[in-house]
Design a protein that fits this description.
Blueprint lengths: L5 H8 L3 H8 L4 E5 L2 E4 L5 E4 L2 E4 L4 E3 L2 H7 L5 H9 L30 H9 L4 H9 L3 E6 L2 E9 L5 E8 L5 E3 L10 E2 L8 E5 L2 H12 L6 E4 L6 H9 L5 E4 L5 H17 L4 E4 L8 H27 L1
Parallel strand pairs: 11-12, 11-13, 13-14
Antiparallel strand pairs: 1-2, 2-3, 3-4, 4-5, 6-7, 7-8, 8-9, 10-12
Helix pairs in contact: 1-4, 3-4, 7-10
Length: 316
């Protein structure tokens, strides 16, 4: 059975996708920006800063090997040999269907005063300080979707350019990713220290913000990332961009779907990133971290009320 040596694998993994395509399949590349390319066959496959992400296929990676396996469907050994051999990948036997043109990503227009979004977020227990911080840096704002008020959560790339937005209804129950969003750049919060090696991962932006509030008192410092669901694509894309992360905390919902996904993601990371310590950390109480925050705040309110009553009784 054909195989590859460790040295061959290491050498092949050092070849990024852009370099491989420029050398062997230049006809597949089309420039989409100063530092960004897309492929002719897959219009939603973006190559930027040494990293690639195929939005439609929900896969991402850095090396040419990852691309040949995940996108072209090659076997592992064949992919390594193709890269090391400096040749173009064989043309699939069946023609690849051209993707439909993707809509350009445009952020929904903001309203002048985010009063409804502020009320909504505070009702979910999010502190004015964190809301204000996100509003000031443009990662949270209020917009309208067919006249309905919505809270917009924005994700940015390494250069700070908005590449993703998720809109959640404030009074009506709806939520959707904005057309053209690149899920590889989902909503996140940076660590206080740029040297932090910790990352906490959540299913939704609200759970992410809830965790930020609860951990302020404990002094935890790290990056926080919303998956916008339970797919590992967002997380692996983040780890490919930030190689300093050494500890990942999976803070997914405390239900069957969330914990099944957490176990699956942990196994994926153990295989692809053996140097990263991964823990599964569901909320101690409630279904998710927002439930946990609201219950903790309600308990604290009850304690404060009981304390005030006791003080009032003593003064009498």
């Amino acid at each position: 059975m054909p195989s590859v040596t460790a040295d061959q694998l290491k050498q092949a993994r050092e070849v990024d996708l852009l370099s491989y395509l420029q050398a062997n399949e230049p006809h597949e590349l089309r420039r989409a920006g100063p530092h960004e390319y897309r492929t002719v066959t897959h219009g939603s496959l973006v190559i930027s800063n040494g990293f690639w992400c195929w939005n439609r296929g929900q896969v991402a990676g850095r090396s040419a090997i990852d691309y040949l396996i995940k996108v072209r469907g090659m076997g592992f050994v064949e992919a390594v040999e193709t890269v090391l051999g400096g040749r173009a990948a064989p043309v699939p036997l069946l023609p690849v269907e051209k993707e439909r043109a993707r809509k350009a990503f445009v952020l929904p227009p903001p309203v002048r005063l985010a009063s409804h979004a502020l009320t909504y977020l505070q009702g979910r227990g999010i502190s004015p300080e964190i809301i204000g911080r996100c509003i000031r840096d443009g990662t949270i704002y209020e917009s309208r979707d067919k006249g309905k008020a919505g809270c917009v959560f924005v994700g940015r790339d390494e250069r700070g350019v908005p590449r993703f937005a998720h809109m959640r209804g404030i009074y009506e129950k709806y939520h959707r990713d904005v057309d053209g969003s690149n899920k590889c750049f989902s909503f996140s919060l940076p660590a206080e220290s740029p040297d932090s090696q910790c990352l906490a991962v959540f299913e939704s932006p609200i759970d992410l913000l809830s965790h930020a509030i609860m951990q302020i008192r404990d002094g935890w410092d790290g990056y926080r990332l919303s998956l916008g669901g339970t797919s590992p694509v967002v997380l692996t894309a983040f780890l490919e961009r930030d190689s300093q992360i050494s500890n990942v905390s999976l803070c997914l919902d405390n239900d069957e779907a969330g914990q099944t996904a957490a176990t699956k993601i942990r196994d994926i990371l153990a295989d692809r990133y053996p140097n990263i310590t991964v823990t599964i950390d569901p909320p101690d109480i409630g279904k998710d971290y927002n439930d946990m925050l609201l219950q903790a705040q309600a308990l604290e309110k009850e304690r404060n009320h009981a304390s005030h009553q006791k003080e009032a009784g003593i003064s009498l």
